[in-house]
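dumping this here before i forget
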Amino acid sequence: MTAPDDKPFSPSVLLVEDDHSLARVWKLLFEMLEYRIECYHTGTELLRQWDQVSHFDVIITDYYLPDINGVELIKEVRERTPGLPAIVLTGSQEQFIKDAVKEILDCHIMYKPLNMADIEEKLGQIFPR
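structure:
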């Protein structure tokens, strides 16, 4: 799929990451690769702004957020925008996180540490060109 100006399709990304420094780095990396990205530091912050960002293509969220876990956030988001693809980021190998992610259709899990190439590969699987 290509945009009208023949650039490759880059999905618009909602990133929810409570580590402000990490969120800034991810935002910069996504912007350098010409992704449209909006960053939030809590699930509540994202949900409060949902009307402005509900048209985005994918949500990427940390599992451990200060106000809600990433899986519960995705469930809340899916009530508002069914079928929105999602990626949960975690540094934990806990089985209950893996199981919770598996229960959600079109939801993927990625393990920290990871790099931009890992994210781009996953986005390529979600949005084949």
